[in-house]
Amino acid sequence: MARSKIRKSSKSSVMNTGRRVTLNPKLARRSFLKISAATAALTGVAMTTKLTKKAHAAGKTTPYEGSKTVRTICTYCAVGCGIEAEVHNGVWVRQEVAADHPVSRGAHCCKGAGAIDMVTSPKRMKKPMKRVNGKWKAISWDTAMTEITDKLKDIREKNGPDALHFNGSAKVSNEMAYQIRKFAAFWGSNNVDHQARI
Ligand code: SF4
């Protein structure tokens, strides 16, 4: 998704190399970051003063006492940008971009900038959710697994194994990608691909 945004929004970063149109990764990335920053700035202006004040009041600018900085990698996609994670009492409390990281080179994309939300966001999904009459409802893992497997079996019996497509994500690890591929093979279909190719 990020790549298609870059392609649309950054004409100057596109190099025409004869038959194929490719991106200049350096220019494309920088342009994307500038556009992201501009969008963030406009969004910030649009926020109410009340909300901005609340956010500033909750913000803590100095390190937590006794915290340590752990260098890690953003797992949102396969690019692998660097994160400096502040860890306090074993809990990830804050993040900064690893400015000298050879991949991120001083910035994160909008997904990586909020990577800590995977851990701290109150909106983080902790249970399977099912939409019932237009509203999301938390259900148990047993119920979710039973309903999904019943539906899968139903699709397979009525329409055959090729009625299903298995789509991997940039978020999955090598091991998860291997499992998705294996599952598709056991299922009996070659309909397996990756989101970035589609
Ligand atoms: S910050 Fe994370 S999601 Fe964004 S490009 Fe880097 S690795 Fe991918």
Verbal overview:
The chain has 198 residues and is of the alpha+beta class. It has 3 domains: 1-59, no CATH class; 63-124, Single Sheet (N-terminal domain of TfIIb); 129-197, Rossmann fold (3-Layer(aba) Sandwich). The protein is 41% helix and 21% strand. The strands form 4 sheets. Strands 3-4-5 form a 3-stranded antiparallel beta sheet, with no helix packed on it. A two-stranded antiparallel ribbon has the order 1-2. It has a two-stranded antiparallel ribbon with strand order 6-7. Helix 1 crosses helix 2. The chain is extended and about 60 Å long. Iron/sulfur cluster (SF4) binds next to helix 4.
Largest sheet: 3 strands, antiparallel
Helix content: 40-55%
CATH hierarchy class name of the largest domain = Alpha Beta
Corresponding CATH architecture of the largest domain: 3-Layer(aba) Sandwich
How many domain modules? 3
List of distinct ligands in this structure? iron/sulfur cluster
What structural class do helix, strand and pairing data support? alpha+beta
Question: What is the tally of helical segments?
Answer: 7
Main β-sheet, spatial strand arrangement: 3-4-5
In CATH, the topology of the largest domain is named Rossmann fold
Order of helices and strands: HEEHHEEEHHEEHEHE
Q: Looking at the structure, what is the overall shape?
A: extended
Tell me the strand percentage band: 15-25%
Distance between the termini: 10 Å
How many β-strands, per DSSP? 9
* Low-confidence parts: 1-33, 35-57
Please tell me the overall pLDDT.
77
Q: In angstroms, what is the radius of gyration?
A: 21 Å
